[in-house]
Write a structure and sequence with these properties.
This protein is α/β, with parallel strands linked by helices and 250 residues long. It is 43% helix and 15% strand. It contains 7 helices and 7 strands. Strands 3-2-1-4-5-6-7 form a 7-stranded parallel beta sheet, sandwiched between helices. The longest helix has 29 residues. It is globular. 48% of the residues are buried. Bound molecules: NADPH dihydro-nicotinamide-adenine-dinucleotide phosphate. The site of NADPH dihydro-nicotinamide-adenine-dinucleotide phosphate has 29 residues, from helix 1.
């Protein structure tokens, strides 16, 4: 069991990549907290998984735009499970609009969830992990953290920020025994893509040399590696899980 004895928090854990990561960690022996907004399916998913993996899956309502909720997530996890060994900073939303039509409200919402939320969760994780003297934080970035794409100004700004935030946190946290990495998924078949029409989706698939969308489990496998002790000498990286999307561009 690759995650035996470890306690993992997954933000945005009720759906898509987050839920696949929750399931992967449970199957490898971890105790896992699904952290997601109150209105999500998180409580239901956690209850189902706790039946399959008794006493090992909990739900905590946490909106990553709210510092008090983020801090409470860590307090509740410590109270229930005793430590926080790995965090998947995965909560995120999409956003497609021409930049000249993007309102302050829409722009700031994406930045507040996809970038500021990552910082809030990482900061709370560092406080706990520094006391423990160990831990692994994995931030969900994107191929759009390293390449631009039309009509995704807020999203690409946020994800680019996540990539460089990861590097800084990794340097800062290394002397305290804490690793910080990012994952850069290509287009993955999750509810996040539900708003895209078939033609647009096919155009995006064509950008991946492997000629398909990725599956949530394929990103979960990368999270599992970075969260586990197998990645003990890996910090500050942005691990692409993108079907070759970035290979031809670098
Ligand atoms: P999903 O929409 O399936 O899952 C995202 C989860 O985050 C949902 O459960 C959502 O809840 C939750 N969430 C939204 N806002 C908040 C918030 N403020 N606080 C806490 N949780 C929140 O998307 P994916 O699994 O596809 O995305 C996961 C991550 O992967 C995101 O960071 C995304 O940017 C990134 N990514 C995804 C790619 C893709 O192609 N799918 C490509 C590259 C990166 P609810 O559904 O209730 O809103």
């Amino acid at each position: 069991m690759r995650m035996e004895g470890k306690v993992v928090i997954v933000t945005g854990g009720a759906s898509g990549i987050g839920l696949a990561s929750v399931e992967r960690c449970l199957a490898e022996g971890a105790r896992v907290v699904i952290a997601d907004i109150e209105a999500s399916d998180g409580a239901e998913r956690a209850a189902e998984l706790d039946v399959r993996y008794p006493g090992r899956c909990r739900f905590e309502a946490c909106d990553v735009t709210d510092t008090a909720q983020v801090d409470r997530l860590f307090e509740e996890t410590l109270a229930a499970f005793g430590s926080v060994d790995a965090v998947f900073n995965n909560a995120g939303i999409g956003g497609i609009a021409p930049s000249d039509e993007l309102s302050d409200e829409e722009y700031l919402k994406v930045i507040d969830i996809n970038l500021n939320g990552v910082f809030r969760v990482a900061r709370a994780a560092l406080r706990v992990m520094y006391r423990q003297g160990q831990g692994s934080i994995v931030n969900c970035a994107s191929i759009l953290g390293v390449f631009g794409q039309s009509q995704t100004a807020a999203y690409t700004a946020a994800k680019g920020g996540v990539v460089n935030l990861t590097r800084t946190l990794a340097i800062e946290a290394a002397p305290k025994g804490v690793r910080v990495n990012a994952i850069g998924p290509g287009y993955i078949d999750t509810p996040l893509l539900a708003a895209l029409d078939d033609e647009l989706l096919q155009g995006l698939i064509d950008l991946h040399p492997l000629a398909r969308l990725g599956r949530p489990e394929e990103v979960a496998n990368a999270f599992l590696f970075l969260a586990s002790d197998e990645a003990s000498f890996v910090t500050g990286t942005h691990l692409m899980v993108d079907g070759g999307f970035t290979a031809g561009k670098s």
